[in-house]
Write a structure and sequence with these properties.
By secondary structure, this protein is of the alpha/beta class. The chain is about 45% helix and about 15% strand. The chain has eleven helices and eleven strands. Helix 10 runs antiparallel to helix 11. It is found in: Periplasm.
């Protein structure tokens, strides 16, 4: 089960994972993709995994903060999947997910790309280089709420499959979305601008019903996790490639990049960074911040150090 159509760029890494599992796991383990939101609505998919209606799903963790507020912590990570795993982020979040929702976290499949704003019209840029987006109606999920409030945006939660029509009809002035998959959806027909800097890493997760996972044979679980570990980093590499393709398509369509620096960049980045952990504490409690912030910070610092070393 997937919150994104299997043909969409954001689902490409999952489709490759399933194809690899099935091609090499005959007689051991097979995965059958049952569909997406046309089968089970987006906001119900995590619950469907939790209750065992489906065994596995891939989707944005941000859709399910209301079910499990701790899922929000993954939004603060800016590290590849292997670094997050090495620093204990995945194990800690998996423990909470299993304990509270009967869902096992297999892997983050959202590393390798980020989020940014796409707008029909250019936002106001002040004389000192700051940006004013207040009053703009921008598509965004629940996980964006604190940031959007800080920017004065009107957040409109629209399913991905309805964004094209919403842009076409002027229901929204822009979209907060990933740095890939936009061209796939054709939104460049209406979008005039991409706004930089990007402000958050992807939060797509691959997860499974915990009871089903624990019921696998040792051979099956070992094979599955070997494939998961292989593909969580292949997903990272694929995202980088797809991001380049999206950028090329945006340029061909005439979409202009607004490269904010100084006060403008600080406004965008600060709206996320300065509200994030406060929002987590309000929704999930101070103990969640105390447990996860050091892990996330360690992963981000390790990733930054590795990047600096080249």
């Amino acid at each position: 089960m997937t919150t994104i159509s299997p043909g969409h760029a954001l689902a490409a890494s999952f489709v490759e994972f399933v194809e690899d599992v099935n091609a090499n796991g005959e007689g051991v383990l097979q995965i059958d993709i049952r569909g997406g939101v046309e089968v089970i609505p987006r906001n119900e998919q995590y619950g469907a995994v939790s209750s065992g209606v489906v065994d596995m799903f891939i989707g944005a963790a941000g859709y399910y903060h209301g079910v499990l507020p701790e899922l929000a912590v993954i939004d603060a990570a800016s590290a590849p999947a292997d670094v997050m795993r090495a620093e204990g982020v995945i194990d800690a979040l998996d423990e909470v997910m299993q304990e509270k929702t009967n869902v096992k976290l297999l892997a983050p499949f959202g590393t390798g790309y980020a989020f940014q704003f796409y707008t029909i019209d250019a936002p106001t840029i002040t004389d000192d280089g700051d940006v004013d987006m207040s009053g703009m109606r921008v598509r965004g999920g629940p996980s964006y709420a604190a940031m959007y409030d800080a920017l004065g945006l009107t957040r409109i939660d629209i399913p991905v499959q309805d964004i094209y029509t919403s842009l076409e009809r002027g229901v929204i002035d822009g979209v907060g979305y990933t740095t890939l998959g936009v061209a796939d959806s054709g939104w460049q027909d209406f979008i005039g601008y991409r706004i930089f800097p990007t402000w958050r890493q992807g939060n797509t997760i691959l997860a499974m019903n915990a009871e089903v996972f624990n019921g696998l044979t040792e051979e099956q679980s070992t094979y599955l996790m070997d494939m998961v570990l292989k593909h969580e980093m292949l997903a990272y590499d694929l995202a980088q490639s797809l991001e380049e393709e999206d950028t090329a398509a945006m340029r061909e369509a005439g979409v202009e990049d607004i490269m904010l620096e100084g006060p403008g960049a600080e406004t965008i980045l600060g709206a996320f960074a300065n509200t994030f952990w406060e929002a987590v504490e309000a929704d999930a409690g101070a103990e969640v911040v105390e447990r996860f912030k050091p892990l996330i910070d360690a992963a981000n610092e390790a990733a930054a150090a590795a990047e600096a070393e080249g």
